[in-house]
Amino acid sequence: MERNKEKYINPLTDFGFKKLFGTEPNKSLLIDFLNQILPDQRIKDLTYSSGEKQGITELDRKAVFDLYCVGDNGERFIVEMQKAKQKYFKDRSLFYASFPIQEQSKKNKWDYKLDPVYSVGILDFTFDDQKDSKKLLHIVELKDKKHKVFYDKLKFVYVELPKFKKKEKDLKTHFDKWLYVFTHLSELQDRPKKLQDRIFDKLFKAAEIAKFSPAEREAYQESLKYYRDIQNVVDTSKEEGRKEEKIEIAREMKKNGEPIEKIMKYTSLSREEIEKL
């Protein structure tokens, strides 16, 4: 299918993510998704807040979230789509989570009681320390050495989308269906039979590009271009990394006296590339 024939937006783009999950008319989509991934949590309503948060003093750095919401019971939700790995991604998550904690402070007499804070990351990459695990949903809490929860009002929830490999026929849970939407929506021309739930009826209507205004289409195309540029950078980096790994293997094999034909077979490098090592 040609890219310019796409019927539905890519939810991994900045525009697509905010269009589907960051607008008041589509609030039920975000609520439904969060209720699938958050432990012991049933959200009934959300209020969108500004995605930009300032520190307590002018010297503090500001944080800009994709989505920031407050639940009907006072819970704070940071929801972000992360397209590529960052060197200090976990540090960034912790830093961002500090803002909805700080904003709860009150002047004068205050007993420090806090509402829960949930930091949700939908990741278009895999953690390096989790790449050998099939587990794609991670819920992180503050625990002591005996693995007992020390504080239950701060949770980090991460979903590693690249690990989701199920086909439509394999979808069983509501969570499966949501992950299928994230990973396949922009490739679809028709609504799959497994996604006939009412909530997905709303999602597919909101995601249909033909219904966008000219301004929305232009904004989406810009967002899509940026997303593809990021993907190209990531793919190039991976390819270069694989090439370097092959060169190191070939260099070691050559040092151990292995014949060039064998090195070519195991590394896919050319004779000329191996002879230059």
Explain what this protein looks like in three dimensions.
A hairpin with a 4-residue loop joins strand 4 and strand 5. This protein has a six-stranded mixed β-sheet with strand order 1-4-5-6-8-7, with helices on both faces. A two-stranded antiparallel sheet has the order 2-3. The protein has two domains: 3-238, no CATH class; 241-275, no CATH class. The protein starts with 13 loop residues before the first helix and ends with a helix. Mean pLDDT is 87; it is low at 54-62. The protein is of the alpha/beta class. It is globular and about 75 Å long. Helices cover 39% and strands 16% of the residues.
Concise summary:
The chain folds into two domains: 3-238, no CATH class; 241-275, no CATH class. 39% of the residues lie in helices and 16% in strands.
| Percent in strands | 15-25%
Q: Report low-confidence residues grouped into runs of 5 or more.
A: 54-62
What is the overall silhouette? Answer: globular
- The ordered string of helix (H) and strand (E) elements is HHEEEEEHEEEHHHHH
Main sheet record: 6 strands, mixed
Q: Structural class from helices and strands?
A: alpha/beta
- Residue-averaged pLDDT: 87
Strand order within the widest beta sheet: 1-4-5-6-8-7
How many domain regions? 2
| Helicity, as a percent range | 25-40%
For the record, give the distance between the C-alpha atoms at the N and C termini, rounded to a whole number. 42 Å
Report the strand count: 8
Radius of gyration, whole Å = 23 Å
Helices, by number, come to 8
